[in-house]
């Protein structure tokens, strides 16, 4: 298992769920999920096997040895099965904040969306608030998935901002919503 130099702990758990440093072996499942869910991602075109391998070989592999990486990505496991991935991206080490990134197996989106988000957030908040002592973490989302806001609000996140006509999704301008959580909430 690869490890992040910046972290003392490499695994964060909540019952049978855990996040561990992103595994190379999960890259093709991640490619599949990202391509299936491209409509809600800031991804312009479908990923290819070649582009995914290059991303893991050139970008992901470098993150593990960086003192202050711009992102910390994890495989999200239920027991030992990878059912999603995500982490902290656009990390601002000075201001102690980061954006949350998370995508789950498309099949699980339909049947356990809220519970998977909740379990992922439980693990990620251990990392962000206890391990890294960050002040704030937030979700930046196209305003097209109302189930997401319910999951975030149930977990103590608040609507921090609404950006009008901020992104062009499926042929029309949509709002972006930002939900945040502070360390002492």
Report on the architecture of this protein:
- With 185 residues, the chain is α+β, with helices and mostly antiparallel strands.
- The chain has a domain at 12-139: Gcn5-related N-acetyltransferase (GNAT) (Aminopeptidase), CATH 3.40.630.30.
- The chain has four helices and eight strands.
- It has helices at residues 27-36, 49-63, 106-131, 146-154, and strands spanning 12-14, 17-21, 72-78, 81-92, 97-104, 136-142, 158-169, 172-182.
- The chain has an eight-stranded mixed β-sheet, sandwiched between helices.
- A hairpin with a 4-residue loop joins strand 4 (81-92) and strand 5.
- Helix 3 (106-131) packs parallel to helix 4 (146-154).
- The protein is globular, with a radius of gyration of 16 Å.
Q: What's the number of helices?
A: 4
Mean pLDDT: 89
Tertiary shape: globular
Order of helices and strands: EEHHEEEHEHEE
CATH superfamily of the domain at 12-139: Gcn5-related N-acetyltransferase (GNAT)
Share of residues in helices:
25-40%
Give the termini separation: 33 Å
Physical arrangement of strands within the biggest beta sheet: 1-2-3-4-5-6-8-7
Tally of strands: 8
**Biggest β-sheet strands, sense, barrel:** 8 strands, mixed
Under CATH at level 1, the class of the domain at 12-139 stands as: Alpha Beta
Structural class: alpha+beta
Which regions are unreliable across 5 or more consecutive residues at pLDDT < 50?
Answer: none
- Determine Rg (CA atoms, Å): 16 Å
CATH architecture of the domain at 12-139: 3-Layer(aba) Sandwich
Look up the CATH topology of the domain at 12-139. Aminopeptidase
Strand content: 35-45%
